[in-house]
Structure formats: structure tokens, C-alpha cells
Queue: 2 jobs
Job 1
Amino acid sequence: MIPAPFSYVRADSVDHVLSLLVEHGDEAKVLAGGQSLLPILKMRLARPEVVVDISRLSELAYVRVEGDEVAIGAATRHREVVDSADLQRDVPLLPYVASLVGDRQVRHRGTFGGSLVHGDPAADLPAAVLALGATFVIQGPAGRREVPAPEFFQDYFQTAVGEDELLLEIRVPRVPGVGWAYEKFTRRANDWAIVAVAAVDNRVALANMSMTPMRAVAVEAALAGGASAAQAAQAAAEGTSPVTDMHADEEYRGHLARVLTERALVTAAGR
Amino acid sequence: MSIMGTRVVRVEDPRLLTTGAVYTEDLRDPRLTGALHLTFVRAPMAHARILSIQTADALAFPGVVAVLTAADLGMEPMPPAMPMFTQTMTTSLLATDTVRFVGDAVAVVVTETAYQGQDAADHVHVEYDHLPALIDLREAASDAVLLYPQAGTNTVFAMGPAELDPELFAGCEVVVTQEIVNQRVAAAPLEGRAAAATIEDGRLIMWVSTQAAQDAKGAICRWLGIEPETLRVITPDVGGGFGAKIGADPDHAVVGAVARHLGRPVRWTETRSENMVAMTHGRGQLNTVTIGGKRDGTVLAYRLEILQDAGAQPRIGAVLPALTTLMAPAVYAFPKVEVKARSVVTTTTPTAAYRGAGRPEATHAIERGLDLFAAEIGMDPGEVRRTNLLPAFTEPHTTATGAVYDTGDYAVALDKALAASDYPALRAEQERRRAAGEEKLLGIGLSVYVEITGQAPASEIADVELRPDGSARVLTGTSPHGQGHATAWAMLVSEETGVPMDRITVEHGDTDLIPVGGGTFGSRSLQQGGAAVRQATRELVELARQRAADLLEANPDDIVVDTARAGVHVAGSPDAGVSFAELAAKEPLQVHTTFTSPGPTFPFGAHVAVVEVDVRTGKARLERLIAVDDAGTILNPLLAEGQRHGGYAQGVAQALIEEVRYDPEGNPETSTLATYPFLGITDVPSFEPVDMATPTPYNTLGAKGVGEAGTIGATPAVHNAVIDAVAHLGVRHIDMPTTPMRVWSALRAAEAAS
Amino acid sequence: MQVTTTVNGEARTDEVEDRLLLVHYLRDVRGLRATNVGCDTTSCGACTVLLDGESVKSCTVLAVQADGREVSTVEGLAAADGTLHPVQAAFRQEHGLQCGFCTPGMVMACVSLLKDNPRPTEHEVRDGLEGNFCRCTGYHNIVRAVLVASGQDPK
């Protein structure tokens, strides 16, 4: 299948992107690696009039250590996240999770920011950045703003990035030596997660247990209260509202959340 | 040294690895210059009356040449081709008044480019009046909703006794019964369906991605109401078939109809999303298995009740229960076997052959059933099988359902598989993990199988010509799509003549060149097509000897083949010889022959699967597959093993992950490769094939078929292994595919019951 | 719009529709039809080519995105004298292909994998090829071919 017709514009700067977004509003879509957008266009689930390609904006592709944080440009490809020595040292969860996104070909094109802006609750990176407590830097006509991760993922496939805005950067705290784990449960290796759990120290985030990735607040509270991993994990499904689909019903997803949370906490504690 | 039985690498590969094959979509035949592109408009709902079709909007799109419906093309409902089917279930190539599955073809858009076709097809507006969907097989069998009201029934085809024998299980100490789903799966060859068509000198020329050009021609002629001499079908390279490309589909005939209607060349390549709903699916049986016997493991009676999902149109799938019935007695010496079968229509994609086609269902039913019986009497699954296996035989054995097995030694196959897997060690490791309370449990599953190959047609042609330039040309009625016929047939000719393999060309799949041919399906190619090539070659050599005798003024009996010179010489006088090329230069040296097998052959084997099941999540993973497959004498182990590997993977896929699913309204839930869990490379281990070769006397090669062994043996072995892993926790059965949620649900139910 | 690409070493400029997918550009504009389309959802990998040396699914890249880039397809892999690339040779030797439809993409995915990991384990081979489907081989001989191409004995 092939996309409906559109006009392609290759952006030469962030300002250029923003002016195009202001001009075309919801008729424009930002194209970075295209690994989420192009399948949607081909299935004609979206029919934008204008596609704005940001994949050549080198100013959006970087991994930089800045003080207590690592700053990752939104158009940084998964492959570069996987290979980043800075991230491997300071935020090892991210290279590991990025290595599970799609397949090699997808990781050669797909971008860190693109995956996050897509807002798929079953995706891997949203849960990871949520567990890490990332901050999102968003640029719009009114200027630049910073959004903490819990407020970034707003609804099913919907994030805090407005139609006339562009995600520039994701900032994650450096956590060298802190225990981490990512437990992804799939049907096949390169499928989307049926459920996944990211753990960083005692912070836990769940993928595909709600319309958005979410923190397992009850688990974290139980851990803070001195519960063991196994005990705390029992609370993993609290407050979740997972979908029922052909892979899993709500009850099974709740069960998986508990099992995977326990495993993630045990692994994180051992690292 | 003979090349027979050696690992000869394929002559096909250099081309496929460099410039790529030429599939139908790749054709740049001058006769297709300027070909228009055809895009189907398909029903988006499972069952509806068509109230109107508005084509005006679509016609206004750029590049649109025509938008055509059944009315435009003069298509009328026709009865099913098979006489045993309910003849009032009539269908037309494009829907006339009713659509019966999501994907049913309603209209075609003809455009200058493929991109334009999709744009315009979105704007053909069809007004539908919803009718109830019919997904559940038992509901379909109840005839509460009729898919073809004029038929008065949803039953397409039925066989077996009118009444079940009430005394069948008399005298049995133990009787177990279980409903077993053999789920619907997609063949999903990586190349979907495709066709191209043009008119040349008043004839319709069609290129079709098919497993059998001659069958395709017959079907298209029937659908279009044209005479055989007015149609030529040509088969380009074919990117996999697995049974779903036997002959032609109605959609292919539509391509021909449009070319005739417009008088212009047209081409069609379906998208994957189209393929998943509009190419026939496979399997789709609901089987009720009942086994009765003694506590010592002896089975006294076996009953199989088959309910086959035919899908929305009566196609090959509806008749497959006949093969399931034929193979129901399997490898066992059961005194009594009773099979009753029925095929019903539903509002789903029509079903047809898929690698094994009716035989995997038979093997699966009895192999799963025997494990249930073994569990009931507390006996090892291997022991139960051994207790009931037919003894080795070399004279034909006739079964309770009338199959005549040629040769078999099932106990040896089982023993080899158990030995190669170190079965006792596996059981010990299983016990250790259970005792230690480990989360990753081990499951061991067995299957012993016999299948029928080369069932129909029984004959195949071959035409071999030795040419003055020293080359050879082979025409075959078989139709390769990955099996390596060009290599195998060249081996056969080279072996007998000494013509080097790289001087031998093999041609197939052009109905002008090869009007009669059976195609490639049912694991028939080597044992019939290959046997025909050998027969033709030997007849050709005989002809050459006669001619050489005249030429060399010798007695024909004194002329011997001299493969070193690719010719013949007088016995004892190597210098007094002549090459085939020299003989061919004097007079064409060509033989056309037909080989007819005295009967189908019955390959057999035994598989052992080892799975690991995460007892907390329910996820099962295949760790090992040890497989004995006896397909008679092996011509080229490289090719035979390749066939086995591919079959294993598809068999494993059915046991563990693959399933075509519909929601209750008949909407497909697995209509892309993102949603259909096509088996991936990380889902399987490397396999462990074990050799065994019991020749058949039915052809001079001693060959039986090997193409479908893998799916037939692997599915029940893997399925049994998953259940075996959790059997000690009280789980008796889990339907396929054994997805994590199914396994977890079964574990939970068992826990609640205990 | 205009795209200038170097495909298998040959630079060219073509006028293309903005929405044209790279795979269709290669097949229909460049006439390189070894690369196939097997799905609509970036799942099967049949269309895998190298873009600036990295494997990508050419059904999920716009032709215009390849502007100024280098593309390599299986047609450009063998040496000028016809000698097969080690991956091609190993696929033949180990019978890593049957119908051939997945093969061009599979071979290019293997070339990319071995570039990053010249001596992969069996596990790494399978992991590295998770984005490529094959319906014929059960993957068994594909894995063997990659091991052989990397100079290892697959046993």
C-alpha cells in the first residue's frame, strides 16, 4: 500500500519547521525517521497535506552530557542511542531499551524523539523515560517550554506536543550505578509489548497497561514502605486500565504486570 | 561417481542471489508494455447485500481508465466446480448482490499506474445492507443463518456414516473424548497473488503466480466461459505457494476478464493487507476425538468427528475432510475407526490447501488424542504409541478408511527419534525442574505420523531433448516455486547421460509448451515429475542406443552409455562411440513420456519436541525439534532437508503462535503482517533432522514426497510438548495456538479445580 | 520533486512524486527489481537495502529522503566479474534460499549485520535478522549461511 498524495518539505532549520507547522496546522505531519509515520500514511490512517522532514537537522541529533543530565536530541536515531558510550555509562537503561525497539532496520531510521512523540502506550521508550523521570523540551511559536515526563503522555497516541510545536530534546537524569531493568513481554521478539515494565532504582513504569505509559505508583509506595520486591509487585495492576485484545485480556495483563514488575525489581536490585 | 543422493547446490541460486527472480510483478514482457493496473474494491464487512455501487467519483480521479463491476463484465453466479459440493451455493467472480466475507471482491478499478489505483479505489462508494455474520462453526452447522438461502443449508459437503455406531466403544475400559481446534492459519507466501494479462492474436495470454499452470488454465477457462485453445497461461518465478497457489483464484480470472473487456494489457499484484483477507486460508477444523481402549494401553476404537470451516465460498477447503478421513487411522493398528465429516460455510475468507491440506489435521487429532488417552491411563506417551503402532510392512497395507500404505516401519522411526533426543534424559530433566520448583518447566511432546503424497494426479509428463550443441532441455508438468526442480531434474538427466548440469535447462509452466501437467502440490513432484524425467531420459538413452547401433553398425545390445563423453560407445571399444550431440545433429533426439504411479506413497516419521514453558507467564518456547522423516530414497539431501526445515517452521508456527482471527462481527483481526504473527527467526531453534529412508517400490527413484512432512509431524509434537510441560499441574488440554494467555488461563483453571 | 541518488555506485537525478516510496523508486524508476515488497507494515524486511551503508526497509523510506544518499541493493553486491559476495556464496552453499522472494532483502540485512558484527553467534544472527521474514527455509539454513559467511563453522 502507498500513502495518499502529500507535499514533502525538507526543513532546513527548527524555525523553518515551526513556520511550516504554523502555516499548515493539523494538515502537516513531522517526519523524522518515519518508522511510525510512514506505516500510518501507507495504511491511510492519516492523510496530511504536508510532510515536514526534520531528519537532516543535525542540530536535533546528539547525545550530550550536561551536568547531572544527559540531553538527547529528538532526531537522534535509536541506533545512536544504543551505541552511545555516554548513555551506556550514565543511563544504561536507555541503550538497552532502544535496542529492543522494532528491528535493526527500524533502529537505523527511527528516532528517539519520534518514538516518544508517537505516544504509543505499548512502545518501549515512553515507559523507560517515565521511569527515569525525563524532561521534554518543546519549542513552539510562543517559545520554548519544558514538560516533565508524567505530563508529556496525555492520552492514547497523544502527547503534550501541540500541532504547532516540535519536540527538541529529552533530558534524562544521569544514574550511573543505579539498578535498572526492563522486562518486555511479547508474542514474538520484535513485536510491541503486551506488557512491559521499566524499573530504575525504586521507580517503576508500565507500558501498555493504560491509554498512556504510567508509573506504578502503588508499587513505588509499597517499596518506600519497606515491602519486598515480590510484595510490592502485587500492587502493579492497581490503578491500571489495560485494553483487552487478542493477545491478552485485562486480567492477564494485570497478572503480567505483577510478574514482570517483580522480575524487574529483582533484576534492578541485583545490578 | 554418481551424483544421486549427494548435496548438489542449486543451479537456480546465482540468478536469485544477484539480479533476483522475475516474479509476475517484475515482468517487463513487451506484450505487457503499457499495461494498466488493476485494484480490487473489496467488501469491508462480513455479510451484506449490495444496494448500489457508485463509480462516478472514482472515475474522476487521475489515470482512471475504468471502474468495472460484475454487471459491466457480464459475470453471473456459477455453481461450485466440484460436483460433490452443494451446487446451489453459487458465486460469481465479482459479487453480484451479496458479499459474504471481508475481502469479497466487489469491483475493480483500472488505472494507468498502481498508485492511482489505490487513490481511486478509496472513492468507489458501495452501499451495503448489513446481514448477520456467521463465524462460529456450530452455529453455521445449525443453519440458523443461511449464507446461501437458496441452498437451504450451510453444509457444502459431508461424508461418513449417517449415524454414529453406538457400540463403537463397547468393551473399552477407558474412553476419553476431547474437542480439539485445528485453527485457521494463513499460508502467507512472501509473494502474494499476482497476474498479468494481454490479448495476442485474439487469444488471452495470462501470467499467473501459480503452483499449477494447467490447473490455472482450466479454472480460468471455466470461469470466463472460454475455450481452452483461446487461453495460454505462463508461470513466471513464484515466490512461495504452500498450497494456496494451486491453480487459480477467481481474482485471477477477473484480471483476464478485464483484459478481454478492455482489449488492453493489465496487471495486478495484491498488497499484503489484501492477501491476508482474500487469499485462501488453511486448516480451520473443529475436531471431536474419542478414543477407547484398555488400561494396558491398547486402543480398541477411535472416532473422529470433523467440522470443517469452508469459509464463504465452496473451494478446496471444503473437501479436505476427505483427506483427513482417509488418514485418520494414522500409523496405528486400531481395530475400529469411525470418521464423520461435514464442511460448512461461514462469513470468512474461503479455505483451501495449506501445506499438508487435510493430513496434518488427521495426524494432529490422533496424536493429541493419544496423549489424552496416555494421560488418562497414566502411561508414557511413547509407550502408548509403541503399543498401538502397525508392525513394519513391505507389502501394501489397507487401512480401515481404505488407504493403501506402500511401505512403512513406524516403530523404527519412533525409536530413532527417541534415541536422537535422549528421551530418558529429557524426562529426567523435566522431573528435576518440577521437583526444584523452577519457573521454566520442560515439556516433551511426541508425534508419529504417516501421510499420503502424490495422491492426485497420479501421472506426470516429461519431455527431454538432447541437442546438437551438447545441451539438454527438459520440459516438466510440475511447477517449482522454491523446491529446486531445475537442480533436481538436471541431476536426473545428467546422471543418465553425462550431460553437465550447467548445460541442462528445465522449463515449466507454459500451457502452450506443456499443455498437460499436474503442477506442484501434495508433495508429488519428485515421485511423479522426477520419475517422469528419469523415465524420459532412459527412453531417450534407449533411442540413442538404437540410433548409435545403426550408425556404428553394432548390435544395440552392445551399445553402452558413456557418460564421460555424454554419449554411447560399443561395449569394450570406447573409441567406437558417438556423443548424444552428434546423434542429435543427425536427427532430433527427443522423448516425451508420461509416468503413472501405481498409487500414492505414504511417507512417515516421528518427531520429538522440547519446549520450555514459563509457568508464571504461560509463555512457551521451542527449544529443540528432533525429527525423523522417511520420504524414501533421497535424491538431493540439501533440497530435502530444506523442505523439511520449512515445514517444521510452519508446523511449529501453528502449534505456538499463528492463527487467523475474526471478531464476532466477522472483521479480520490479523489482516497485516503486523497483526498476523508470521513466524520469525527468533521463534525457532535450529532443527535436528534425523535420516531414515525406506524406498517405495512405486517409482524407480524409490522416492516419496517430503514437502509436507514438516507441518504434519511438527504441529502435534510441539502442541503435545506445551501441554506436557504443565500436565503435572492438572492441565489436560490447551487449544492451539498455545499462546501465553491460553497457557496461563489453563494453569489458572487447573489450579481452581484442584 | 527531484532526487539525486547513487544506487550501486551509479549517480542519477530523477523527478519523482513526493510520496514515492524508495522501494518503488528502485524498482520502477531505476529498474532494479530484485528488491521486493512483502508487506504493508514494515514487518517482513523483503525490501531491505542499504542506505549510506545501513540496512533500512525501503518500503518505509521516501525516495525523496534518499536524496544525496547512497543506496546499495543486492544487484550491486557481486563483483564486476560475477564473483558472488561471501554472503551470496554462503546462501547458495548452505541452501539459505528457496523461492527467492525474501532473499535480496535477507542478503542485504545479513551484509549489514556482518558489517557491525563480523563474527556473530547463532543467537546474535537470529537477533540481528528479526526484521526479515522467510516462509520457505524455517530460517535454519539462513542462520547457517550467515555463520559460514562470517568464516565460522555452523557444525
Job 2
Amino acid sequence: MTNQASAVPGSHLSPAPGGEATRKHFWQNLVAACISIAWNASFLFMSLALPAGHSRGDVGPGSLPMQVSVFGLIVSAVYLVQVLRGIDLGGSSDRIDVPRVAGLLGLFVAVALSANWIGLALCLGIGTGVATLLFPGERPFVRAIATGVGFWAIAYGLFGKLLELPLP
Amino acid sequence: MDGIIQSLGVIFSFSGLAVLIIGALLGIVIGALPGLGPSIGLSLLIPFTYNLGPELSMLMMISLYTSAEYGGSISAILLSTPGTAAAAATAIDGYAMARKGKANEAISISLTASTVGGVFGGLALLLLAMPLASLALKFGPAGYFAVGIFGLTSVAALSGGSLVKGLVCAAFGLALATIGIDPIAGTPRFTFGLFELYEGVPFLAALIGLFAVSEALVMIENRVAAAPVIKDKVGHVFMSGALWKETWRSMLSGSVIGTLLGILPGVGGNIACWVARDYARARDRRPEEFGHGSANGIAAPEASNNATVGGALVPLLALGVPGSPTTAIMVGALIMHGLHPGPQLFTEAPSLVYAILFGTIIASLVQYAAGSLFLPLMARVMRLPDAVIAVGIMAFAVLGAFAIRNLMFDVYLMLGFGVVGYLMKKLRFPVAPIILAMVLGYLVESNYRTALVSSQGDYMIFITDPVSLLFLVLSLVSLLTPLWRRLQKRRVRQVDVDETANGTAR
């Protein structure tokens, strides 16, 4: 465990330091535990719909997924119990920088989506060039153009021509 | 004897050394590029080796295979982006060490351990090919199932951080591994009608997303406050005496583990690296340093993944059974030259067999020389601006994901895994158990069901099979050891608290 400090009454261990951070971690871990339970429950539900095995002794295609989802449900329940008991299992204390993270991700999703129209190499060149503008630094436009041209050349020359990757 | 002399003549000829050097340089580059592993490298190389003849062709492929296993560690250390699946374990301590300003040290350990592992694997191939192959082939499906479980528990239990989070991730990875066509009955599972998922979730797309894309997303966020990008200078690759003293045991244990696991069909460097890291951590005097830049955390997996090369060639040469996907491609190359791998090869083409046997050792030494010369060039990636490195990770991730099957679907999937990996990093979930579970999922399921079919549904086969029993016991030990250690620590802490309280009361 990242932190074994417990808020359980009677515990000799001191509570986790950083009240604000611990509160944040509690909510983060609570949401994660609930998502984990929901995932494993839905996986179990889908596993039950799979057909039985045909050969003698074969447990069927649904057997292992079912066992895995039951195992997942058990460990997720243990995780939830640990969270509810106040054990700090770690998490992020800082806010997510949504504009930058979503910006970088969105740019590369756009690259993937437009690859079939204007080509992956060109898309990557444009995408990487624009993406560098999300970072602070000197002479951003020169850096963007240099990066874009560089990655277009790598994608087109190295992957497309030299390694003969059939780029869209 | 003639075969030995002929093979050494081929290896030490101008053409022989040239193909070994070209193979090593290509291997390092291909290994270092995320998404392009030795399998893809060999697939691309085979058509160009047809005119070289079988000996030179095999030498070039072995050199590429060996060097790609090492090359994967370069990007794992410098960018936290394992170039190959076998370098995933190296990324943890390698990148942590590089972030401490010890990138040069990390790479020197990686290159040396890879060379030691490669030479050890080659020697094992040379000396123990037949006996080890016959031993490994005695393993039944129950034994292989237990080997898979052992690999799984070792990482789920010892991935660092929270054990319960590690187990949640292992369950998630196993669930992902069951997606696709069922290995026994052929029934599609959880594919939602998408033909792209019939072969399962592409492992490399998941690997690139979880490791690389998530890192780029973390990097762009960290630009605001602190720069996590490595700025250390990488110049030499010689390990200090102190580092040798610190890591030789891990190199040796990694080499043994890698060689032995490499012999088992289906168990390659991507599993051996985790088992070797786990073993080294268990034996280390400072296990808490693992995950924070431990030298042994690099030496053990790197020695093991290169040692698997020699190990994987044992069943290929002795019985014609490929020990890994990469050696399966090599079978294709041999067939292209009109040869059939197996015991008959020792009498049909002795010079080829000895070229492979000696070539595996020589290729590791050539890899060391090529790696030393090529390293400063590879390390220049660190001197690139932070923005270029982050977007570079994203660009190579897109190209790498596309290169797997030439499908844009894999790119979307990889980006999705990137978001999952990013959120997991924010919530301090270990990513490694997912990857390991995905690797082991097929091995575990196919052998589990085959064992049950062969025993007509009797679960006792997993106990009565001695190999299975051995590995299941090892799995239990592996799972219970961290719990026992934690209990011991808690007990010591409890005693300290009580003593402090008693002292205050007096």
C-alpha cells in the first residue's frame, strides 16, 4: 500500500497527513472503485451469455471470463472497503490541466480521423507542428514548422518509403 | 568438426561481419522505435536476405533479433516508451534513473546486461540445446497454465504501490485478454461485431497507449510547473566497477531466467523480463528502491530478455518448434531457403546450425560494439526540446500503432488506452499488471482449457502434474511474500509505537 495509515477507531497508526489531499484521494478512489465494480459486473453479465463448451471436459468460452470477472469483483469490493475505511490508497493532488491534455489528445484524434483524406504523413506533420504550440518556449512558430516538417519527413521517408508501411 | 570450421569461416568473413553489424544497427533502431519490435523488423528484413544464402541470412536475422531486444530499452529509459514489449519492465527503473540525471548509467547497465544475457543465452544454446529442449517439451498444458499463473501473480503482487490496485489491474488485463476468438472453440467473445477485435485486443496498441501516450499527456501537463524530461548527457557505455559489483547477481539470475523461460514455447522476453525483475527484487537488499531507479531493476530484465533469444532458438533448432513469434518468423526464413528446422538440420546443414549456435554469441558482442558507437546518436533525442519529445512520442505512437496491422482502428484503440493509462497514472494505478495479464491471458486460458479437456474436466490435473504443482506453489509464495513482509513491517512499527508509548509513560 502506498499509505497504510488508517482512520479506523482504535488503530495505533496515525491518520494520513494532508487532510485536503486525503479527501481528494478518497473521492477519486471511491469513483475508481465504483467504476471497477461496474466494469466487472457488466463483464460477468456478458460472460454468462456465452455458450457452453462442446467437448467433453471443456469448460466453454465463457468460463475464464466469468472467473476473471468474479475475481475482479472480489478485488474491487476489497478496494471499495479499503477506501470506505479511510485508507489513503493514493491519487492525484493536483487538478488536471484539461485544456492542454484535451488539446493534445484532440489534435491526435483529429490527425487519425483526417488521415484517410489528406494522408497520415501530412496529418502527422501538421498535428505535431500545431501540438508544439501547446508548450511554452522560445520562437514557437519556428519550432512548430521545424517539428512539423521533421515528422512529416520521418513518417513519409522512413516509414512510408524505407519501411514500406502502407500509410493512408 | 568441418561444420564448426565452415561456420566460423562464414562468421568471421567480411560478409559475415558486415551482416552482423548491419543487423545490429537495424535491430537497435527498430527496437528503439515504439511499436516496431524484432518480429516486424524480421518480417521486413526476410525478403532482403533471400540472396544472401542461409548462413548469412540467419546471421543477420539473429543479429537484428538480439539487438532489437536491447534497442527496446533505449526508448524505455530515455522516453519511458518501451520500444519492445520485452523492455516494458526496464521502463520502470530505467526512466526513473534517467529522470534522476543518470541516463548514461541506465543505458550502460542496459547494454552490458543485454550483452551478458545474450552471451549467456548463446552459451546455453551451444551447450544445452538438446537436454533442455527435451525437458521443456515434457511440460503439459497444466504445467504451462501454472507457468502463466506464476508470471501473473509475480507482477500483480509486486508491481509496487497498492496490492489491491495491482490486482484490480491484473483482472482488467485478463478480461481484455479474453476479447476475441476463443482459443479452443473458436467462438467470438466481446467483439461487438467488430472484425478488428476478432484476433483480440492488439497488445502493442494497448502497450503503446498505456505507456507512451499516457506519458505524453502527463508531460504536457507538467510543462506548467516542472520539466520531467531527461537532460543528462549520454556519452560512454562502460559500467563502473561499483555498478558491476552491484548488478552482477541480477545479470546472472536474469540470464538464467531468460534462457530457461525462452526455451518454453510462448514464453518470451516480454514475460521473462517481469519474472527476472521480480526475482531480483525479492533477492535485493534494498527492494524499496525498485520502481525508483534501481540498477538491478534494469540489469535483471535486460539480461533476461536478451537471454531469451538463445533460449528461444533451442526448441527451434532441436525440434523445429519456435519458442517465440520472432523465431516463428525465422522458421519461415529457413523454409524460404528450402530448409526444414529440426534435428535433421544437424546432419543436413551442419555449417548453418553451427553458424546459428556461434552467431548468437558473436551477435551479442557485435551488439555491444554497435551499441557503444551508436549510443551518442540515439541519446541525442534527449537534447531535443521538451515539446518535440512529447509530440514525438505521440507521432511515433500513431505510426507504431498503425504499423501493427496497418489499421487505423488500432490507432484509435491506442489513443483510448492512452487516456486510460493517463487516468491510471493520476490515480496511482500500476499499469504493468494490465500488460502482463494481456500477455499471459492467452497462454493461461488455452492451456487451462486444454488441460481440462485432456483430464475430462478433472481439476486435479493441476495438482497431480508435478510441473504445474511446482509453479502453483511458487505462485502462492510470490503472492504471499509481499503480504508477509508487509505484516512484518507493521509488526515492527507496532512494537516501535508501543515502546515509544511506554517510554513516555515512564
